[in-house]
Predict the structure.
Amino acid sequence: MIVGENARAEDLDVNAVKEKHLTNIRSSTADELVRLVPKRELSLDQALEFLRGDESVEVTPAAVRLRKTVLDATARRKAARSARARTPSCAGIPAGRRGAAAVARGRVRVLRAACLNRRRTCLTGFPPRHRTSRPRSSTMPRRHRSRPIPRTLLACAGLCALLLTSLVSTSSGDLRSQIDAGRSAAASLRGQIAAETRQIDQTAGGLAAARARLGSLQSQLDRRIVSLRSVQSALITARDHLMWLEDRQRQASRALAANLVQSYEGGHPDIVTVIMQSHGFSDLLEQISFLSRIGHQDAGIIGSTRVARAAVFAEAKHLAVLETRDRALTDQVLAQRNQVAALQGALLGREIAQLGHRSSTRSQLGALGSRLGRLEARAAAQARAAAIAAARMNGAVANGIAGGLAVDTGGTVPPPAGAPPVIQQVIAAANAIATLPYIWGGGHGSFQAPGYDCSGSISYALAAAGLLSSPLDSTGFESYGAPGPGRWITIYANAGHAWMEVAGWRFDTVAQAFTGTRWAQGGGEFSGMVVRHPVGY
Amino acid sequence: MNPTARPEVWEVQGRGELALAILVELMRREGYELTVGKPQVVTRELDGRLHEPVERLSVDTPEDYVGVITQLLALRKGRMEQMINHGTGWVRMEYLVPARGLIGFRTEFLTETRGTGLVHYVFDRWEPWHGEIRTRGSGSLVADRRGRSPPSRCTTCSSAGRCSSGPGRRSTKA
């Protein structure tokens, strides 16, 4: 940890924790006056600016600390010395890669992701083990980790790597064992894919069940919501009615009060005035009964309003209870639905992961298959080469000393049936110069020459088929094309000589000395020759 | 964000040290613990040579601080392009400075001009690597063991340099 800035240019290791022992006080006055310079607390920005190349900032929620990247002082000195020796000027700066308008970059090293807040999503780009650990909620289904798959993938990868490395060795026994191993690996991969498919089917079944459950819950929820709405609307109308009734009662009582006041003030007829003002007894009776009817009616109106109000109040109360019950039920169903939806989401995630696994396994199987195909082709080529070698042995025995009896009288060779056009072109071109004289350096200045030397002849034949663009000498043929024998053409070259074999025929200027044509069957110099072939043939 | 050779280390590229500081502060507030190395500029290979970005920097400052600023920028391999004295007590200067040298420049600039100076910079061009830039002339005081630092040691340490850690702070080696 860096505790401060040194006044000099170099770093200084200090012991910042050394205690002064209590018995270390020699004089009671010596320590009295101490001036402590206040510390300079560095903010994050300042800390970043303060840094030198071999230092870094440790950022934790509690503190921002500066530290040397290499903590051990000895190791640090050693590293600094080796860095100085290694780089002249631009130490530690890798050659620019991203040249965008980006101006600065820094290195961020995540040491330990401490979890402080509980529910928080992570910054993307950090591997899962650095994510803040999140408490599993009980509603979420526990995601089961498909551990065995990565392990088998690893095993397969190892197998493939093995196959790859073993491709270098070429003996046929090895090839066969490799092919067998590849086949068994492919079979195991196939079995794995089948197992994964089964697993995916299971997940899909679970998903369908979850979906059905979700649908039924949703419809239940819809029904609940509808009933809740109707209860709510009924409640609203009841409350409206109650308000109206209360209003009416208020009006009626107000009217009654007004009547009473008026009757006292004498505006309206009372019994005394009725008696005084009535014309005759019948009129009197009628007026009295009218008065009492008015009184009855008023009382009746108030009474009925009161009763209705009480009834509506009771109704509203009942409806409110109903509403709370319905609301609780709806919430319950909603919670259930959310739970099932979460379950479905988890299942979907799992299915996606499984599908990804399966596709990766499939691609591996494909790669393995193509590799197997290549191996098998190689085995077939080896078998053919072995057959050709056997035939050549027989031919050499049959032809004996005459060597090249199969060549026709013109010194040319017929192209074999089934040879690709390039091979036919090579043979045709080789036929054209087969009997031309051997001239040292012939065919190297230009492809057209009165005679050709060993590598010149080969160059001419290969160039005619487009396998070569300019003449090569025998040293050049040592690195021509691809190493090893070819399927149709094999070139044997060293610093002094080069010859080639086309479809089992030997095309060699050495043969010309005996037979007059460059074509021959069998023989040829093998020791100390580099074996090459044109790519693809 | 680029992965590096080590699994727990990433290279983060951003627009300037401010962006990086903001990212680091955000991560810190989210509860991460991390270690950040020295910010470096993004370089480019042009015609087989290493090039670095160069910023065009314009400074408005009271006359009194011209010398200080010239000194600051000379240390950071800045080239003065133009200097206009308005005659009002303020001077405007234009510099070309490697972006590398501007890391941490603003704070130092504000300190030196007592908060009066104005500085702005914008990317100008790529130029061949200017060589090593040493902005901090001083070394570090490095605690070589862990423990709690007593006040008595703070007096000793501050005699050697300036402390950014005080008494009672726990010093860590690891």
Observations:
- Chain B has a mean pLDDT of 80.
- The two ends of chain B are 27 Å apart (CA to CA).
